[in-house]
Design a protein that fits this description.
Length: 144
């Protein structure tokens, strides 16, 4: 049964690696002048990988329960303490999870900066539009 758990952890590691790579690609897209061309496909792939990770986590928790261990982090820590191979792959998985978490946080900040910039640009444009409305269709100031 521990072989199945090891296989699941290895699959999780590969999936999180793919997710982290996708986040690097997303970061590159977010720095481009026009990211809208590639972001939809990135979002679709992120959704797919997230669903795959959720499924693998459910499988891992079920395997831990079958071994008489609690699900989640605590169960994995106990299982890893009993198996050196599992401990090695669990450690690798945790490292890539941290890397992906940092990249995701960074991308979120980049998105927030871009949104703030767009909101500021819209406010300026709206202000310019309202100032422009004091002129009539004939080019003269209204009320004059």
């Amino acid at each position: 049964m521990k072989d199945a758990l090891l296989a699941t952890v290895i699959d999780e590691h590969a999936t999180v690696e793919a997710f982290a790579s996708l986040l690097a690609y997303e970061e590159k897209a977010l720095t481009a002048a026009s990211p809208l061309e590639v972001l939809p496909s990135i979002i679709d792939k992120k959704t797919e990988l997230t669903e795959q990770l959720a499924s693998l986590e459910k499988s891992r928790d079920a395997q831990l329960r079958d071994l008489g261990l609690p699900p989640g982090w605590k169960g994995m820590e106990l299982a890893a303490a009993q198996d050196a191979r599992l401990a090695e792959h669990w450690k690798l998985l945790q490292a890539v999870v941290q890397r992906a978490r940092r990249a995701n946080t960074n991308n979120g900040l980049m998105i927030r900066v871009r949104m703030n910039y767009n909101q500021s640009a819209l406010a300026i444009l709206r202000g310019a539009a309202s100032k422009a409305s004091v002129y009539g269709p004939d080019g003269r100031m209204a009320g004059v």
